[in-house]
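Problem 12. The chain below contains 301 residues. Write out its predicted structure in token notation.
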Amino acid sequence: MVSVLTICLLLAAASGLAIAEEKKASPLVGPIEHLWSKEAPGAVGAEEQDRPSLSLYLAPEEKANGAAVVVCPGGGYGFLAVDHEGHQVAEWLNRQGVSAFVLQYRIAPRYHHPAPMLDVQRAIRTVRARAAEWKVDPARIGVWGFSAGGHLASTALTHFDDGNPDAADPIDRVSSRPDFGVLCYPVIVFGKSYTHTGSMKNLLADRVNDPRLVEEMSSEKQVTARTPPCFLMHTGADTGVPAENSIDFYLALRKAGVPAELHIYEKGEHGVGLGGTDPILATWPDRLLDWLNGRGLLTKK
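Solution.
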């Protein structure tokens, strides 16, 4: 006979699993805008997973200061953690008067490089091209990424162009360069002992041993003087994506003369999002707020 205690333990375990799955895959709340009205470049089908999109969280009119951020949830390029690295982040940004656009980008096993990069570049162009409609400042559009989403955000910060003035599509005429970046426990480095190999394999697939592509997608090697200012946050206890990833990117920014700020907390597992219930980690968004204010990014114009 199964005891009452056993049943309770089984129910608790099932509940915990459900919460974990919900944390990974909760649906986004804001209105959805697909990045391409027709087929996305390189699409392999016509399902929703083939149509990258933005979930809109426009700042309340009484708080809006004009700043905007494209948010890239993590998930190892294999799933999207759209709750604690998407929805919750967008709500936090809205409380600061910032409009948020959570990016649903294409992922493995269906998609590999360059699909995610094309998606984040298009996302930034879209927000900039429609800035007047969404009441945001086209000169204050940032990108914020977590884990593998941090790699995608760092890719946007290092692989951008000024737009094609002759393009038929007005969105393609504007720049894909972010005005600032926020990277939280980001995957940065490829081909090293502290590389997050799962993200690298999901992104590069059968080209994972191509040394030129590995170097091109190692964001710390692509930093230039035109890389936008960055805020980085990591934890020393992160064994999934070691802090060396953020350190290497920060040092590359410093060498290039790019303004940057790096915070490494002693404790905290990978995937802490906004810090959760940890009394120390829960204060890190305040450091970000200080940085944003210090750079004038939240000043209403």
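Discussion. The domain at 4-294 is CATH 3.40.50.1820 (Rossmann fold). Students who got a different answer should revisit the alignment rule from Section 12.3.
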